[in-house]
Amino acid sequence: MSQKVRVRFAPSPTGPLHIGGVRTALFNYLFAKKHGGDFVLRIEDTDQNRYVEGAEDYIIEALNWCGIPFDEGPSTPLKTGPGKEKRFGPYRQSERKDLYSQYALELLEKGHAYFAFDTSERLDFHRKDHEAKGKTFIYNWHNRLKLDNSLSLSAEDTKSKLDSGEPYVIRFKSPQDEKLHLNDIIRGDIEIDTNVLDDKILFKSDGMPTYHLANIVDDHLMEITHVIRGEEWLPSLALHQLLYNAFGWDTPKFAHLPLIMKPTGKGKLSKRDGEKGGFPVFPLSWNESEGYREAGYFSEAVVNFLAMLGWNPGTEQELFSLEDLVQEFSLERVNKSGARFDPEKTKWYNHQWLQLKSSAELAELFSSVLAEKEISREARNDSYVEKVVGLIKERADFPSDFWELGSYFFEAPTTYAEKPVKKQWKEDTPQILHDVAKIIRNTSDFNSKNLETKIKEWISSNELSFGKVMGPLRLVIVGDLKGPHLFDILAMIGKEACLVRIENAIKTLG
């Protein structure tokens, strides 16, 4: 690619990001970095009625948390010095609105657009009239000369309406009887009959452009080379191509990403689906919604599973760091068909990334939970917590699982799981545990290997089954039949704690 790659993510600041939006940002970022290009954040806030305070900051925080920061955007500093002028800003459309009118006028002068004065009531009448006849009303070549616009009016009448301040819009004049040839990197060649296109509104009399005009003008002025966006924009591709043609500008390459489907595979995943289904669909929390960060996901896991929603690496590999993704990513390997969102698979990714973290890193996260549980500072010293995490992390999907998996390392059980008690606690169990307590008390070199050797030798010499001893012993130490290697647990909690727990259980269970 001779021209420097420049891509953009252009969300509207209207509330939380949808998971599809974050994936769009990720794919733009990966493509830019793969080709040594720039990733631009542009805030499309022309619709001030839907603007939500704080949404822009949230978008920026979300991208940073995912580890996909932008090279240019609203918060990037001005580049100063020779040859470093900030050529492409500002990056909020509301701050660029003075730009757009000149381009709307250019289209008018070239005959690619026209003034339309039709009232909403009149258009509504035409729609209902068409519906009554079993037709669909489209404002385009076949009826525009019968409607209230500068194509059907004389120049004098048009000027009179404009001079009197009559409300108007500027519509694009779609060509008649043409075959429009489009190309999409993911979907290949597409042919459109221009007769089916309507004359979209580009500019309103309040001085604000519609999305279509602002989008094209901004992409051109910001020298965007590749437009990578969601499939929902595919119906707009014909108009956008026609606008580039009308201005005489080079067209960027387009790539429309597949939809993200509900877990059932039927229908597009919505923000509401996540709240209903009990899984977050935003990378960070928004107002009352839980986000991936708050749910305990690692950003590496979120990025990994987002990348696999619609992209196929061509191998069996499933775990990719951001650096791996930059190396491997290509738009040619993005699927055309929708990608099914699987909440269980997202947990699987988090489990895999948790296993790749060091015990020291995870212990730091667990320590804050222990502090909330009011575990003493002495009991939660760094070295001990790190060892505990090392023993239990393979069973965890999230750091928040550590307490349930390993609370017995920090406090003695006060209750015992009902089913194991019924199954394990026999008439002779208290005596067996008294004998095991003696071995524990008399073991001077108190480590896992030594304890295992002594207790197993005692079991064998007394011709007992291992289940008769090991099950009840685990039950009284842990409170349930769970946890890592039992002798590791005994060694970790220490001799005195072992003896106290055995004694308490015998008193409690009889």
UniProtKB/TrEMBL annotation:
Catalytic reactions on record: tRNA(Glu) + L-glutamate + ATP = L-glutamyl-tRNA(Glu) + AMP + diphosphate
Binding of ATP, residues: 271
Keywords: Aminoacyl-tRNA synthetase, ATP-binding, Cytoplasm, Ligase, Nucleotide-binding, Protein biosynthesis
UniProt xrefs under InterPro entries: aa-tRNA-synth_I_cd-bd, aa-tRNA-synth_I_codon-bd_sub2, aa-tRNA-synth_I_CS, aa_tRNA-synth_I_cd-bd_sf, Glu-tRNA-ligase_bac/mito, Glu/Gln-tRNA-synth, Glu/Gln-tRNA-synth_Ib_cat-dom, GluQ/Sye
Domain Aminoacyl-tRNA synthetase class I anticodon-binding: 362-506
Chief place where the protein resides: cytoplasm
Enzyme Commission no: 6.1.1.17
Intervals of motif 'KMSKS' region: 268-272
Short motif ('HIGH' region): ranges: 11-21
GO MF terms held by the record: glutamate-tRNA ligase activity
Subcellular location: Cytoplasm
Domain (Glutamyl/glutaminyl-tRNA synthetase class Ib catalytic): residue spans on this chain: 4-348
Family the entry assigns: Belongs to the class-I aminoacyl-tRNA synthetase family. Glutamate--tRNA ligase type 1 subfamily.
Assembly and binders: Monomer.
Function summary: Catalyzes the attachment of glutamate to tRNA(Glu) in a two-step reaction: glutamate is first activated by ATP to form Glu-AMP and then transferred to the acceptor end of tRNA(Glu).
PANTHER family: GLUTAMATE--TRNA LIGASE, GLUTAMATE--TRNA LIGASE, MITOCHONDRIAL-RELATED
Protein name per its UniProtKB record: Glutamate--tRNA ligase
Protein source organism: Croceitalea marina
Phylogenetic classification of the source organism: Bacteria, Pseudomonadati, Bacteroidota, Flavobacteriia, Flavobacteriales
Gene (UniProt): gltX
